[in-house]
Design a protein that fits this description.
The protein has about 270 residues and is α/β, with parallel strands linked by helices. Helix content is about 35%, strand content about 25%. Helix 6 links the parallel strand 7 and strand 8.
Length: about 270
């Protein structure tokens, strides 16, 4: 079953000026239900723009986006947010720093639902949040009344990941969500990401600058360059990939060397 389908999605910025740039050039992409796809590419390849198009942050110039059989091309961002979970690179995004952990979880749980005067967290919800936070393995279940602003970057990113998946979204978008973390914390958050996606059988797109993570995580990998998808690999072929293989594929498809230091060092 196809969960996400992009058909000839095109996006340009600064149209009609000397700075006009076409960032996505008739992108075609299909994700099956349960696919966990990693996305790599150099600066300006169109990775984050593609995620923003899917999330409805910017309007497309042309193309069609279908989510779980529903044409969402003209849906505003808030309406797509009912169907899509998202985690950003900055751990400070996605949570309310001045609110308690349990309050942040309650807001995430109620996303897309009608507001009522009964805002209080029920006993059943408290138990649900306690158990969900406990599975993160960070000891936060005993700190549900702590302000989120007191958490470390890794703890906050793990909480954001939990909030994004609390209602089992149709699609999970991860935009370099471990890039701002130190290596040890990044590895822990990435492991949590895999566990949640596998347990909840989620469909996910993860942009990463780390080629090794892109190879090791998920069942499929796509590489972008200059607004195009230039490489798409899955299954056994993906599992046998090395970073050297990816660099070679990039050079073959683009006709130039991969010179993004951040990704090479990552």
């Amino acid at each position: 079953m196809i969960m996400l389908k992009l058909q000839k999605v095109t996006k340009s910025f600064n149209v009609g000026t000397v700075n006009e740039k076409c960032v996505l050039k008739q992108i075609n992409l299909e994700l099956n239900d349960g696919d966990f796809v990693t996305v790599i590419g150099g600066n300006g390849a169109g990775k984050s723009t593609m995620l923003n198009m899917i999330a409805g942050v910017y309007p497309m110039d042309s193309g069609i986006i279908t989510l779980d059989g529903e044409n969402v091309s003209l849906y505003p961002e808030y309406k797509r947010a009912q169907l899509i979970g998202r985690v950003f690179q900055d751990p400070m995004m996605g949570t309310a720093a001045d609110m308690q952990i349990i309050e942040n979880l309650a807001i995430a749980k109620r996303r897309g639902k009608k507001r009522t005067l009964h805002w209080g967290v029920t006993k059943g919800e408290k138990d649900e949040y306690y158990n969900a936070v406990k599975e993160l393995g960070l000891g936060l279940e005993e700190r549900l009344t702590s302000k989120v602003g007191l958490l470390s970057g890794g703890q906050r990113q793990a909480l954001t990941l939990l909030m994004a998946t609390l209602n089992k979204p149709k699609l999970l978008l991860l935009d370099e969500h471990t890039a701002a973390l130190d290596p040890a914390t990044s590895a822990k958050v990435l492991k949590l990401t895999q566990q949640i996606i596998e347990r909840e059988h989620l469909t996910a797109l993860m942009v990463t600058h780390n080629m090794k993570d892109a190879i090791d995580v998920g069942n499929r990998l796509i590489m972008m360059y200059d607004g195009h998808i230039i490489y798409d690999v899955r299954g056994e072929e993906k599992r046998n990939l090395t970073v050297a293989d990816l660099l070679k594929k990039f050079e073959e498809a683009s006709g130039e060397e991969f010179v993004n230091d951040r990704m090479l060092l990552g």
